[in-house]
Amino acid sequence: MTTVTEQTKPPAAAASGLRLLQETARRGAVFILLAALLVLFSIAQPAFLTIGNLMSILQAVAVVAIIGAGVTVTLAIGGFDLSVGAVAASSVMAASYAMIVLDLGAGATVALVLAFGALVGAFNAFLIVRLKIPDLLATLAVMFLLTGLQLIPTAGRSISAGLVLPDGSKATGKVDAAFLLIGRSSLGGLVPLPVLLMLLAALLLHVLTEHTRTGRLLFAIGGNEVAARLAGANTARLKALAYVLSGTLASLGGIIVAARVGRGDVSSGASLLMDSVAASLIGFAVLGLRRPNVLGTAVGAVFVGVLLNGLTMLNAPYYTQDFVKGAVLVGALALTYGVSRSANA
Amino acid sequence: MALLEAHEIFRRYGSTQALAGASLVLERGEIVALMGANGAGKSTLVKILSGVERADQGTVRLNGREIAPKSPAEAARCGIVTVHQSTDVVGIPGLSVADSLLLNRYVTGKMPYFLSRSAVLRAARRVTAHAGFDLPLDRDFAELGAAERQLVAIARALSDKADVLILDEPTASLSGTECRRLYEILLSLKARGLAILLISHRTADLAAVADRVEVLRGGRNAGAFRRPLDLDAAVETMIGRSLARARPTQRADLGPPVLSLTGARLLPDRPAFDLTVHAGEVVAITGVLGAGKSRLLSALFGIGRLAGGKATLDGAPYRPTGPADAIARGVALAAEDRHRSSLMPRDWPGSSIAATISLPHLRRWYPFDLMMSGRERQEADRAIARLGIKAAGADASVWSLSGGNQQKTVLARWEVVPGRFLLLDEPFQGVDVGARHDIIATIRSHRDRATLIATSDPEEAHEVADRVFVMDQHSLHSIAPRPALAPAPAPAFLLERSAP
User: Fold this and answer.
1) According to DSSP H, which parts of A150-234 are helical?
2) How far is the alpha carbon of A237 from chain B, nearest alpha carbon, in Å?
3) What is the predicted pLDDT for the residue at B485?
4) Do B343 and A234 touch (CB under 8 A)?
5) Which CATH superfamily groups domain B246-495?
6) Cβ contacts (< 8 Å) between A232 and chain B: which residues?
7) Cα(A211)–Cα(A222) distance, rounded to whole angstroms?
8) A–B: how many Cβ contacts below 8 A?
9) Which residue has the higher pLDDT, B497 or A209?
10) Which of A82, B231, B304, B317 has its CA 20 to 30 A from that of A206?
11) What angle do CA B124, B125, B128 make, to 5 degrees?
């Protein structure tokens, strides 16, 4: 990845101007790169820059951006939620199970699955806040737990209409058509519902983290937990809030996936954890904030989506995708840590 | 020719001129004490000599040859070794004292690659023999007390063929007997021709071992004293005013008691004590590191509990369940080490001056959660004006401030709301003399609030407080005489372990 910057070597007298230019370049680097990608791809492949294709990019990254927003909140409190991928995957299973086996309607299913996500978040918080298990280990354990748990009710089978249950009987329910609308409908035939949900989630969490006292206190815990506690903050409750939010958003991501595929696939959501964590970390570099931030996470997810979509249109083979994501992540982290360090020294 | 000669050293940190032409000369076989109030530049000078920091300007000569060590290891190779105040990082819990003594040799590869227990013990014994005192080589480093850890650090430092030994607050956490043992060791090292630079607040240390006292103030040499040492004069040079003038005027009109402790114990097996702090009164507790000052303040703020006794606040029973509860009752704590206890990291949300001040008050200032109104900025603007915080504005980062202005910001956090009882733990850490005057003035300006200050520096205690107590081994066991109208109270350092 080459950085597209318009720096020349000016005389030493213009050092402060250069400093300003460098700072602007650093803060806007992700946006400059994003714009450069859009221009490059639309020149190479005219079909790239159409409303339809741009919407399909956003639709593709919506789930990752929503889950990433939750991860971002846990990063803000100085924690980490490794269970989000597993929560999303088991939410896909839970949604299908609720409709096909329990014969629930769309509304009840959504409520049940969101509650499931919140419950997993509360369990994570219990392990981390009460039992004082380090966040990475606690959420890793819960990730394993859920990955296994989602297989048990159906004896390891994917869930679709007419599923044969472990006791030999046949499931009677079917996927509610209203439920499928969550993943398949679009506003005015233009903006897919998942994209709207992504925008809504990003906006709400952005306001929560950046413009409320709750958000200030969440960041205070991540920045200096001792200081937050000495200032009278209820750190246990705030940490629990972060993990519950993260779990709930992950289950929302799972609902969207389930509504799109229309069945409970055992292997769905395999890459969601890595992709959403990557989006959050790329978000550090967006605006040069060097810290978790919800808007950065959304932009990070979109950035990866644009890159993958464009490369696919240019006939890059599918198996290069993870390599591309990895390269973007390395570049973003270098921009966050390496470049800023040397600029501040 | 002097052994070590630092000439006109300058060093600036951001807006703070830490050193402004300080000089220092050390001869072989002498012990020189470096004195100075917090922020006078002592630690910066030591950091430059020991290779942690580099000087902006000025020269350091060792044996007449100019040196500019870039790291502590390079300084040690030149022959300058430093023993820092926190000695818990000298060794590694789980390894023996012998291993801890040889740690630097493991790194440099001066030990054989395959180690046998007896080879390690032999090598360690050579190190202690060279240093001239014994250590329990078989014990686990974690079991050692502060005094023995100090000796491990000194022995290891000496094993590097040192010419200059720098000791930073070596007696801060030692008992009286341990101090005397250290003095003997220092004197024997001096007799061997070592030059020792001692940084200490304790006038007892200086009286016992120092040949000369070099006083720094505002980053410059403010005076030098030879034996026989006139410690009064040295302290006056250090704080820049006469001792008598430095004392605050005693308040005659004390308000009602705000906090009362009766039969209080910090640890179950330590003697109980009583303490009453009145409205409008400033009480200071002084004592060595680890004496229990912070434990008392923490307990009064709801972190941890008293081991016994009763506490009342404004006449009502006071048993805070946590900081939030204490704050709700009007009790505030500005804890020791503001970076760890009060400030958000650089570039992190909440690291502005306004946000630092507002952190405990967010619930009251923003009852509807959304932080749309500029309440915290208005409050911060007022605080900046009232406390004279030198800053670009309320939105400036606390990390752009000097130590003194950072401390003012932390204090401002509790100045913006009316409080009943303010607890300050080491409020003058890394604060320059000018800011210190402002802080003292602010602390003393309240007529309706009681203030309790913990400081390990007795001079500071007397500078700020109406009454001074001494805490030793978790008990408030001696009380400074309260001179009702007497013009000359007992000198501060006599309260501290007096000269042997």
Assistant:
1) 177-184, 193-211, 213-223, 225-230
2) 13
3) 31
4) no
5) P-loop containing nucleotide triphosphate hydrolases (3.40.50.300)
6) 322-324, 326-328, 360
7) 16
8) 80
9) A209
10) A82
11) 90
